[in-house]
Amino acid sequence: MTPPLVLGVLGSGKGSNFAAIAEAIADGWLNAKVGLVVTDVPDAGILRLAAAHGVPAVHLPPGRFKTKLEPESEQLLARSLQDAGVELVVLAGYMRLLKEPMVTAFPRRIINIHPSLLPKFPGLAAWQQALEAGESETGCTVHYVDLGMDTGPMIAQESVPVLPGDTAETLHTRIQQAEHRLYPQVIADLAARRATFLA
Ligand code: GRF
Question: Ligand 1: distance of its center to the CA of 93 in Å?
């Protein structure tokens, strides 16, 4: 049996995507192991969920910026993930842009999930943007991370209908249900072809 793909999960929020990944691993259909969870928010829900799943988790102080890490913090982040043996970095609601230290340390080994059908609606509250634009369909996208905001090469998408009477909340909930199916499945596919994607 191929050894499990070692994941490093980065999150700033409640951690429902982390939970979906951890459950897929526990259910036995995702051949992976979460080596480390890292957050930039000291009281993020993802820390409690990591503890509940018995996964090591750390809060890494981000420094003085709001949308990116202090370069030294980002070096420390890369080193912490490497020390934990991480092969694939999974952004799960991580609210900071990654820069050179991470992208160089993990070339084509960082993925993100975004709550829209990219390239439509990059950036914040993408479900709200879709609702305000009067879309009849939106969804979620898993993509590789580059130095841009929600710009890296796409891996997979799942679409979700926008229903009459939807509010930002109901639409976001429906998109998150799709995220919880799509993200573990994409990681399982990458784990299954690890020999080529890690080459
Ligand atoms: C998700 O909607 C994801 O698309 C976005 O941030 C949210 C994270 O939610 N990037 P959670 O913390 O995984 O519940």
Answer: 4
Q: For the sheet with 110-114, list strands across it.
A: 57-59, 32-39, 5-10, 88-91, 110-114, 137-144, 154-161
pTM over 0.90: yes
In the set 53, 59, 114, 143, the catalytic residue is 114
Residue 1 pLDDT exceeds 80: no
Can you tell me which atom of ligand 1 is nearest the CA of 18? 13
Q: Which CATH superfamily is domain 5-194 in?
A: Formyl transferase, N-terminal domain (3.40.50.170)
What average pLDDT does the segment 71-94 reach? 97
Three-class DSSP category at 36: strand
Q: Is 59 a catalytic residue?
A: no
1 Cα–ligand 1 center, Å:
32
Whose alpha carbon is nearest atom 12 of ligand 1?
15
CB burial of residue 193 (10 Å; 0-12, 13-18, 19+): exposed
How confident is residue 154, by pLDDT bands cut at 50, 70 and 90? very high
Pocket test for ligand 1, best of 37, 43, 113, 158 (most atoms within 8 A of CB): 113
What are the residue boundaries of the structural domains of the chain, listed by start?
Answer: 5-194
Q: pLDDT for 5-52, tens place per residue? A: 999 999 999 999 999 999 999 999 999 999 999 999 999 999 999 999
pLDDT number for residue 198? 78
